[in-house]
Amino acid sequence: MKKKKAIIDGRDLVKIYQMGEIEVRALDGASIQVEEGEFVAIMGPSGSGKSTLMNMLGCLMGPTDGKYFLDGEDVSGMDKVELAGIRNQKLGFIFQSYNLLARTPALQNVILPLFYNRTSPLTDEEQQEKAIQMLEAVGLTDRIYHEPQELSGGQQQRVSIARALVNDPVMVLADEPTGNLDSKSGAEIMDLLVDLHKQGVTIVMVTHDPEIAAYTDRTIHLLDGKVNREVKNGNGGDKK
Amino acid sequence: MKPIKVIKIAWLALIKNKVRSLLTMLGIIIGVAAVIIMIGISAGTEKSIQESITGLGSNLIYIQGTMTRMGPGQEGSNSGGLIYDDAFAISDQINGVAGVVVEQTSAEIVKVGDVSLDSITIMGTTADFPSVRDMELNSGRYFTQDEIDRSTSIAVLGSSLAEELFGDKDPYGQTVTVSDSVRLTVVGVFEEKGMVGDVDYDSRLYTPITIVLEKLSFSQFARFMGDRVRLIYVEVDESVGEDGERTLDDVIYQISLLLAKRHDVTLEEADFSITTQQDIITTQESTTAAFRSLLGWVAGVSLIVGGIGIMNIMLVSVTERTREIGIRQSVGATPSDIRWQFLTEALLLSLIGGLIGVVTGIVGAWIFGQASGMRTVIVASSVLLAFGSAATVGVFFGFYPANQAAQLDPIEALRYE
Q: Do B166 and B112 contact (CB within 8 A), yes or no?
């Protein structure tokens, strides 16, 4: 069987924070691989390094030591400008608190990544069209011009999913995507993510909730900055 | 990123916070408007001064007596000022003189029936006065040389004085009492002249100079006693300077020689000074230029204060919008994208503020002119200067906050509450 392409290939990732005199090893040699099309959850108690790992996988910071290949490209030594480009072209973020621009219509929020896309061949009208398509895909056809404060939590999270997808990323990173939602909206968001996964989108999600993690193919447990164990989830989420 | 996109992003951010944007612009608006209004006022003042100087009549030479101090043991000789007869000497002996006017003034009480006016300027003058000073008669006549020689007790009134003394009645042939004892018969009223410099020609009473010299000078300081006069105006013939034979300077030189000889002094120790219209204009110009640059600087300082206002609000705005900056960074904005966004916001604020300031300044200058009666002139260069400074100020003071924004760490920024 032909081996699938690795989207994430992180080797012995180390992140050290200097807090005055004290040195904190938030990541202490974590290695993690995610293949194209996978839906992976990262779990761990607080202080286990999952936020640090998430920020590193999301190219919001580089590792102190170790190598990180994203979509075959070594991003561990990149500077701020290059990392911004990688975030724009290859990644999509979904945050617990949605992180939409306040008082800005859903459409403008979704277009935002296209604004910063230097290689996009799309014209302004095509960008607008694409953003509208994305909003339609997440079921917000009639909320295109609503501002975040006029939307429910679940709807806001859908806007942020549309934003995450608009630049056709190689991977979507979701940080506690259901953390601020009631269970019904949370389940709807998870169904949407599962749908995306079925369409072939690679998703890495941080959660502390085992029920949410159960939607994924595989759960990576972190402890003390290291990968503790990995568990295959036998539910329907990974079936294609 | 394409500039148009940067401008679009900055614009969207600004209109999201209309009130704050407006408040931020306020300093720039006031600064730019202040520059335009201040320069407008000084330019207007300058223009009216210039016009009033030209309004005095063209080709004028002013001869002023300079008072030489008389020390102890020194007799009050005929040195120390001009005398009435100097004027006749000039008009008789100098070529190229079209007219000579002598003026001697005195402030007196003027009475007509029940109406009594205090401190009215009584202007004793000579026959050429209306032509040299471009004064037109509204009614009646002016006095003749003959009447001056004979100290005839007659008067011509300025237009506003005539109205104050007589109201709607015809003053012709009426008697006015000056300084309680001198009775003058009104023979004419001048046309309204308006203010010339700081002199109101309309509120004066004009009478033969001999009346002032003989009957009113006792109330003046000793130096005005007798036939001393303060000022002699010489109107130079229009041909001077044009026919190539005589220039204005030649005429002035001849007058100097004549007066020096008459006063028995050398040119170096002359007891009089001669000024031309052009000298006065030049002096006025340098004064108003200094005035203008002072006002310009004051207004310029307010522009800088406006710029600091922009910087303050932008700094607050960067802190307040930390989360927004984090979001933008997470979707791929580079530090320079963020820097440009905030710089463009500052620039847009100062340009829009500058535009509003220009409009406010032009309207404000007009309203100020209407309300105060002062003349204001919109100087095109001041508009450009104010607008240009506003833009410069925007970039300069926008740079620091923009850099602060660009240097934010995306993780910190996203976590910011």
A: yes
